[in-house]
TrEMBL record:
One Pfam family here: BKACE
Cofactor(s) needed: Zn(2+)
Designated name of the protein: 3-keto-5-aminohexanoate cleavage enzyme
Presence of keyword Transcription regulation: no
InterPro entries assigned to the protein according to its UniProt record, in alphabetical order: Aldolase_TIM (IPR013785), BKACE (IPR008567)
Segments crossing the lipid bilayer: none
Superkingdom field: Bacteria
Keyword Zinc-finger appears in the UniProt entry: no
EC number in record: 2.3.1.247
Region described as Disordered: 332-351
Any one GO molecular function term: metal ion binding
Group of enzyme by EC: transferase
Keywords linked to the UniProt accession: Acyltransferase, Metal-binding, Transferase, Zinc
């Protein structure tokens, strides 16, 4: 990304698009009963509360009545429909790590040869976005979840902690290409969740080959355990390498969330918050998703940045936009063109 002398001036920055992840699938309801919704009505209301506080992107997971994360396509369809009716301007972003389990023999037969994560392209109503990982990666969320923060929570259970420590995100080249094909055919925008420079470089190659033709909405994830660690130099290196025309959101965990959100907002980028990322504030006290959004709003206003409305966030993210060619995709995302025959040195962007 390019930074000019006046790039840190708020009048030259987009309005702030706040992403909230209020469903926190790694926690059980007893870990934070005041802020973990379980019934469908509670889950819809949580989206409404977050939107009213200033969040315009909802990172969506769904729970069953027993509090566990749902793998039922029908439950996702129900929550998306409920949120769409309650807050129609909110951007619905489904967490792409979910895979579905068939609910009947018909679904079992239909999905027999498919990776069930591809069913995210078949959600009805369609979400605006699905998060997409690039490259298969270890996702050991336990690496930076210090024991003092886990005391009295479900993640203090050694068996559960061991399972989360061994998590991986499978996102190999064949899966990625097929997943992007299906999402684009369904008109669902991928939001790329990137674990470091290696993932950004692979994504650039995917774009240059024409596998993906659309806006680049990116989240840098600094959570360690196979992803970039929460080191500002990792974040700044990623920002430096990111295309000029992308949108970029910061994501970290626990007490790292606020510092990275403040850095992101100061540089004209965007924050993510919610109990999926942290259930505590900087003093170790429980902090709800709405309280985290309100904190982002206060910081943004101190920096002189306005908060995007739902409609404004859709325009910033270019929801619903796809491009016709590789060349158009590169140009719209502020990337240099592919090398043409006999072109020496670096291909220049068109004036």
């Amino acid at each position: 990304m390019q930074f000019l002398d006046d790039s840190l001036h708020p009048e030259n920055q987009d309005k702030v698009v706040i992403t909230v992840a209020p469903y926190g699938p790694e926690w059980m309801p007893e870990d934070f009963p005041e802020d973990i919704p379980v019934t469908m009505e509670e889950q819809v209301q949580k989206a409404v509360d977050c939107y009213n506080a200033g969040a315009t992107v909802l990172h969506l997971h769904v729970r069953e009545l027993d509090g566990k994360g749902s793998k039922r396509l029908s439950k996702f369809n129900e929550l998306i429909a409920g949120v769409r009716a309650a807050v129609p301007d909110m951007i619905i972003q489904v967490g792409g790590s979910i895979s579905f389990a068939p609910e009947d023999e018909g679904q079992a037969a239909k999905w027999l040869s498919d990776d069930t994560r591809h069913m995210l392209a078949d959600l009805t109503p369609s979400p605006d976005q699905v998060t997409v990982a690039v490259n298969t990666t270890q996702m050991n969320i336990m690496e930076l979840l210090y024991p003092a923060y886990l005391e009295g929570t479900s993640l203090a259970n050694p068996a559960l902690a061991a399972a989360y420590a061994e998590m991986t995100v499978p996102a190999g080249p064949a899966w990625l290409e097929e997943h992007l094909r299906r999402l684009q055919a369904s008109g669902v925008q991928p939001h790329f969740q990137l674990t470091g420079i290696h993932a950004l470089e692979t994504l650039e190659r995917v774009v240059r080959k024409g596998v993906y033709k659309g806006p680049l909405n990116l989240t840098w994830i600094g959570i360690g355990g196979g992803f970039d660690g929460p080191n500002p130099f990792n974040f700044f290196n990623f920002i430096h390498r990111a295309p000029d025309g992308c949108t970029l959101t910061a994501e970290s965990l626990l007490k790292n969330v606020l510092p990275f959100n403040m850095m992101a907002m100061a540089m004209g980028l965007h924050p993510r918050c919610g109990i999926e990322d942290t259930i505590i504030d900087q003093h170790g006290n429980r902090m709800t998703s709405v309280q985290q959004i309100e904190q982002c709003v206060r910081v943004a206003r101190e920096l002189g940045r306005d908060i995007a409305s739902g409609k404004e966030a859709r325009a910033i993210y270019r929801i619903g936009v796809q491009y016709d060619s590789v060349e158009e995709t590169l140009a719209k995302n502020g990337m240099s063109p592919n090398r043409a025959p006999n072109v020496k040195n670096l291909p220049l962007r068109a004036a």
